[in-house]
């Protein structure tokens, strides 16, 4: 029996969820469409945004109470860690036993949209929360496939920027943060000595790898998907871009080889300890504070470009990072869920929540608050407005994160072990990644 | 205190007094009831077994014949049938999916043989060593069982910390203290990841072998050893001629269980490496998980699971057939 139990790991886990749903009457959800059968309660899955799940509960609880006071609807909150969120959503999708409202990583929008589990935000639904015009365009760009009604609404926005250690820069005689990659490599070489390193990276974190190489590819005029949504991982631009990123460790030697196995934000603690002088990160200020680094010890500048200043096209220097809010199509409280989304995206709540998390409100009216124009957030806000672009909004996006993210992880492993990283070896890894994509 | 003892005694008397009476008396069950009762008692377990194991398994097999992707996952029963396509993809070793599956199959085979072998060897050696009574034997026995008692996640995550390149204990000892390596090695990425995985697996698995062999040793009559000693057999001869043959039935089950656990081990590689294991340590369980949940090829993942199940059934069947035949021959 043991053999039977363990052997079918993939299928059994998946189908166990189905079995449970079959017993629980979840089959009614197969046809889609929500109802208003349970107008007094809502279940909300929040992604883990703060330093811990406890912190998130502390931030969200008073706001949810406010919502209850206003509408009489009680919100049952569950904060889900990032590593579990996608699998939890998949299970909920297959079983129909999910929350009413949930946070999704904005890069997953199109993939989850393809599953048909999320409520489409047509004009009527958007109208009920004040219309699309309230939101910043770049954030709306990562809510689903082009030409279809969005699958989610932007909630928190983030962008990548270059964080640097002021004292280490001063000690190395560097007067201003690097604006181009050549500057960054030159500065990095000055900083990489005596056991200290120029730049930090999370080489074994698949999503992080994707975020970085997406920007590098943009700067080389390449994309990872063709206009009609087919994978195109092996173009010259994509290969050059990934090689340039991995070369920061392999050739330029400004990233410590040990970073090749980082996947738990160790590069941030290295930065806070003064072991590395720079990191490319999204909204890191709260994390630095929790690691004991004072606000005046670090500075923040736009992430570098190949030449000139950040902008559009090949001067893109960040992906549009952030969290979207989605409603499950089979919710039992359709109207309540829309009210909740309206509440969470209201000007007042946007200010409170984004301040708490150090992110930028995707709602225009809330963005003008001076709190989002300080040292920590001004660069992020500018980047989002001028030089950030959304990851490809295609149904295959989450598979792309896994396969290309793994390829970059393996290339970092090669670099760390001292094996050569060549154009040919990069291309071979990317070819393998492309072959792993599901057949159409 | 006295009252309790008295009641206890009285109870015991009633129980022992009533036993023969029950066999003969009017409460003697009828033939049908006698046959039916055990099945009735088994029924709850059977129903649960059906729900927990068989239903999902049948569903998994059904899924393996469907074109199940992100587009159809929400209403999977309505997904289009795809015949044997998922199986063809899985076994076509000239295409990327099949090639990768075959690679992880070989990695898993090598890993299983080494891990089970080492677990058995270590477990048996320690159990035999701890047979003799000496001071501190109890403490050692308890200590050896610690890895078996720890929650898997806690234990493996601790290993993951120890294997870290920069701050890990393993590199600290091997490189800084003993100077065995030229430079700190990578254990969680690249080729060494296989060694890391094997180390954790053996560390986790051998206490079970130790426990089972220790229990098996209790059943070997002391007289055999005394007689052998009188005949002039040394320790090694005693182990070869008495201990190992007597342990054969125990070992038969032990090796089978270890084989199945190790071949299917998911927790160790997942906690150690995350959802993308290095190529050198790409165990089949992780591979199936990645196909199913990370690249959302649910149908192909199910087909791979079914193939894995068939392989394990065949191996287990052959193993049981061979070992029981050998035992029969030995009995004759």
From TrEMBL, chain A:
<dbReference type="InterPro" id="IPR006059">
    <property type="entry name" value="SBP"/>
</dbReference>
<keyword id="KW-0732">Signal</keyword>
<dbReference type="Pfam" id="PF01547">
    <property type="entry name" value="SBP_bac_1"/>
</dbReference>
<protein>
    <submittedName>
        <fullName>Sugar ABC transporter substrate-binding protein</fullName>
    </submittedName>
</protein>
<feature type="signal peptide">
    <location>
        <begin position="1"/>
        <end position="22"/>
    </location>
</feature>
<dbReference type="InterPro" id="IPR050490">
    <property type="entry name" value="Bact_solute-bd_prot1"/>
</dbReference>
From TrEMBL, chain B:
<dbReference type="Pfam" id="PF00528">
    <property type="entry name" value="BPD_transp_1"/>
</dbReference>
<protein>
    <submittedName>
        <fullName>Sugar ABC transporter permease</fullName>
    </submittedName>
</protein>
<feature type="transmembrane region" description="Helical">
    <location>
        <begin position="245"/>
        <end position="263"/>
    </location>
</feature>
<dbReference type="InterPro" id="IPR035906">
    <property type="entry name" value="MetI-like_sf"/>
</dbReference>
<feature type="transmembrane region" description="Helical">
    <location>
        <begin position="194"/>
        <end position="217"/>
    </location>
</feature>
<feature type="transmembrane region" description="Helical">
    <location>
        <begin position="37"/>
        <end position="62"/>
    </location>
</feature>
<feature type="transmembrane region" description="Helical">
    <location>
        <begin position="303"/>
        <end position="322"/>
    </location>
</feature>
<comment type="similarity">
    <text>Belongs to the binding-protein-dependent transport system permease family.</text>
</comment>
<feature type="region of interest" description="Disordered">
    <location>
        <begin position="1"/>
        <end position="27"/>
    </location>
</feature>
<feature type="domain" description="ABC transmembrane type-1">
    <location>
        <begin position="105"/>
        <end position="319"/>
    </location>
</feature>
<dbReference type="InterPro" id="IPR051393">
    <property type="entry name" value="ABC_transporter_permease"/>
</dbReference>
<feature type="transmembrane region" description="Helical">
    <location>
        <begin position="105"/>
        <end position="130"/>
    </location>
</feature>
<dbReference type="InterPro" id="IPR000515">
    <property type="entry name" value="MetI-like"/>
</dbReference>
<keyword id="KW-0812">Transmembrane</keyword>
<keyword id="KW-0472">Membrane</keyword>
<keyword id="KW-0813">Transport</keyword>
<keyword id="KW-1133">Transmembrane helix</keyword>
<feature type="transmembrane region" description="Helical">
    <location>
        <begin position="142"/>
        <end position="162"/>
    </location>
</feature>
<keyword id="KW-1003">Cell membrane</keyword>
